[in-house]
Each structure stands twice: as C-alpha cells, then as structure tokens.
Fold this protein.
Amino acid sequence: MNILVTGGTGFLGAHLVPLLRAQGHSVTLIARSTPPKSFFEGTNPVRHVKADLKDREAVRESLKGVEAIFHLAGLVSFKNADGRKMYELHVDCTRELLRDVRTLGTKPRIILASTSGTIAVSREERIGTEADDYPIEIVGRWPYYLSKIYEEKLALEFCRKEGIPLVVLNPSLLMGPGDDRLSSTWTVVKFLQRDIPAMPGGGMCFVDARDVAQAALNALTRGELYGRHLMGVNFSMNDFFSRLERLTGVAKPRMKLPKQVNILGAYALEAFAKWREAEVRLDPQEVEVGEHWFWCDSSKAERDLGFVARDPYETLHDTVQYVMGKLPPSELPGIKGELRSAGNLLPDPKELRK
C-alpha cells in the first residue's frame, strides 16, 4: 500500500516505519525533522516531505495516491506555555488534514495515535475502559490531554460523517528505546536526575512503543472502526519506582505526602525557582498528574488489534539504557560511573526477575 505517516520521525514512528517497510509498503513521511539514515537505506526507502503540517500545499502533495494514513504527529508537554502549540497541532492541523483527505475522492484508512489519557484518568483507584466518557472535568487544566480529547472527538465525528474508515489507538505512557526527544519517557528522566522528592500517590500505566507499533501495523486490517483501543500495563507508583530502583541503584522517593500537600508544594517550589531565576526541575503539572490514576484495561486491543505487552522489566531495562545514553554525565550525578565501573550498564532483566 501507499502509506502516509505524519510525525514519523517521533518515538512511535521510529518503530512503526521499519515495520511498514518490512511488509513492502511504500511510505511517505511528512515531518520537519530529518528521518534517520536507516529509513533511506536498502530497498523500499521512504519518501520524505520536509514540511510542517500547517503547510497545506505540502500536506496535499504528500496525500496524493495514499491508501492509508498513520496520523502520529503530536507534542507531549506538561507546560501551560505549550498549550497553544499543542492545540494547533492536535486540533487545528488534524481538522485541516481531514478536510484535505475529504477532497481526495478516495477514502484512505486512517489510524490515529491518541492517548489513554483521553479515557483512563481518575482521581480514585480504578481501571478505565473504552466505555468511559471523556474525563474533561479532570484533565481540563492539562493542555496536553485536553487537546488530545478535542483531536479524538473531532476525528471520530468527521470520519463517521464522511464515511472515512478510522481506528483510534489509545496507548498509555510510551516507554522503551527510541524516545529521541525524551518527552514520553520524562518520568524515567526525572527519576534518574533525582528530581522526584516525594512518592506520587496515583497509579502509573505505561506501554512499550515497540508493542504499540505492532498493534498500529495490525490496525491496517484490524480494529473497531470509529472505536478506541486502550493499551498499557498498570503499576502502583511505588511498584514502578521500586523496579527502577532495582534496575539502576538509584533510590526511589522515600517521602510520602498527602496529595494536596504534594501538589501545593510543587507550585511553591516553582514560584521559588522563578523568584531566584533558576530552572524549574519538576513542573507542578507533572506532580499533579502523578497524583491521579491512569490504569486501563487493554483487553479490547488484545482482542481486536492483537496487542501483546512484553515483560515490563524488559521495557524498563531498555528505556533506562536509552535514556542514559542520551543524557550527558552532568545530568546523571554519579550514576553512569557507578554502573559502568561494575562492567555492565544495567543488570540483565532476566536476572532481576529471579
């Protein structure tokens, strides 16, 4: 098939594009950044349209002859200052992309990469399912999740009306190797930098980007049309950070504070850092997110998309290795030296499971 991938140079695209090429599909990428050299090597190299999704002429050029579209373009940020950028990309650009698709005269299949945060977010301990309504009351002050809700609702309503086949993917926090911008794996980054002073009180859910890429590939022929598909593995925050501690030797947060105290403390520290004109090491919104439950039920994606989550230790092991390779030693005080002096960057995950 002739396939267009938006955001194909991002975390998920880094794993999906090689799968598409391996199956013989002709892949066009529209992205501002340059794809890795491997995308152009061997047979069936990708075609790269170097452009922003706001460039209507470039988007229309990239759409010519396509039979399927993977809409992966996105921005992950928990800074309110990035709210407008996220709305423009997730909502405005998606709306214009769909309008351009409508003019093609054909109806290519669209696979939209959304997030579990459009469904499975709760103030209490519970597991979300696709039957849940949009948690706008909870995420309304978080620009990333709110803009993704608007994007998802827009795409579902537009494609239903126009008869354009659409499958929505709702992966939880992406982990694994390949997060070049370190935006999705921010929790591991903050942990390694020792920037998490207190144990969050919510529930963590993450998924290996390699497993989501395989499910996305399957969505070319599988999945519920106009349906959402949650993917993730659930952990308590304590269990998540305990596993990272075993992997790295970095101590997990020992202090446990009441929810409101933890959140208010984060805002106070932010104000103090700004007063000192210093860097804010932990955004208050990240702290607030950590006090909520993101647990989800992946059974629908397992049934309809063939989604299979690999061993979470393997995912965390590979995530930490990749993150440590991206960060300079100055941002990992003492960690790299300690691990490398032992002759091994990280313990074997199989040994840890014992």
